[in-house]
Amino acid sequence: MWSFFHRLASPKHFYQFAGRLIPWLGWSTLVLFIIGIYLGLFVAPTDYQQGESYRIIYIHVPAAWMSMFVYMVMAISGGIGLIWKMKMADVVASSAAPLGAAFTILALVTGSLWGKPMWGTWWIWDARLTSELILLFLYLGFIALQSAIEDRRTAANACAVLALVGVVNIPIIHYSVEWWNTLHQGATVTRFDKPAMATSMLIPLLTMFLAFKLYFGLTLLMRARVEILERERDTTWMKEMITESGK
Amino acid sequence: MRFLPKHPKRRKRLALIALMITGIGSAVALATIALKENINLFYGPTQILEGEAPKNHAFRIGGMVEVGSVKRNKDSLEIYFEVTDTVNKVPVSYTGILPDLFREGQGIVAQGKLREDGVFVADTVLAKHDENYMPPEAAQAINDAQKIQSTLTGN
Amino acid sequence: MSEFFHMGGYALYVWLSYGLALVILVVNIIIPMQRRKKHIAMIKRRLRRTPAEK
Description:
The complex is a heterotrimer. Chain B is of the alpha+beta class. In chain B, about 35% of the residues lie in helices and about 25% in strands. Chain C is mostly helical. The interface of A and B includes residues 47, 48, 126, 162 and 198 of A.
């Protein structure tokens, strides 16, 4: 088991392992998305309060969960890279950042599209919305900082520090709806008692959540592979591999 | 400024990083100040009656629309209702378009000013919905069950 | 069917949300695929210019 992880820390093995995993991940992501969207749009019943507009939840909530999850992945691998000087950890952190930013934008925009008809406003500076916007700035800051510093090592260290400092925002986002009065409603699924959602509506949500998770795994591996191609282009194994693949 | 790097490329990079750190720093600082000042989005009716809400400038009130309190003006979009936190009530007057979710018993957040006679004059009304999602039949069933419960206990 | 697309009057908001999700998810698949192609082509070009030192 340990030797497996040790080998993954080498770019060559990571590249090859990810290459084998990607088709499987790709197809299962696609299947889960199709099931999730079918259940969410066709099978799940109308909501008693919000009518059909609540169907935005099947995009909005998984995207918002992923925006926080990806941040943790980014910060933890950044931290690993900072402490153990592991090349692959930096690759994972920098591959996660643009994906996290994409999920955050998706969560913010779908939230806005949901807020307009239900609350009566596109945007309000309440604690939940503001802290999610700060999350977007953290991602963008990470990306900008990385492209500003030319030396890879320095860039990775600076970005890891930024990411680790920003972790403080994650519990703020999660608990904002409990700590302060907000327009945004409280948590539905992650309550200690049972979720405040009918099962027929919850199953599509959990399916979409799984689909988003696998999608993140898929795109993270794809991005990491490109990053390895770029960083290792002068190594012998890379040249050999590309010569062998022929054409 | 001898400690600054001499190489123009490095100088540029340093400037860029400094600029970015100030940028991110000020964005976070601004957001924190904004949140600190108004981290609670609204005041409840009890807070307002106790004089916690600002007197001279606009603020937000939050609570439930008292059942049976909504009165509409037939000739205009003017609407009058009471916002309650189940203990105290504040009357609200508003002219304009209401969100789809506005109804009696619904949570709302309204922005406006408190008039001297104690009526809150709103210029926007936003609906706040709860975190429960269910089909209409299930909501109906829960409603009926609560009615039976309250007749049994005599409340 | 038209009732389904109507989404109880919320068609604009619901379909914009799903549409945006589709665009963002697809774009994030295409970008790494294209960058991969570009990098491989570049490495091949360099290999041709400096044939393997033996």
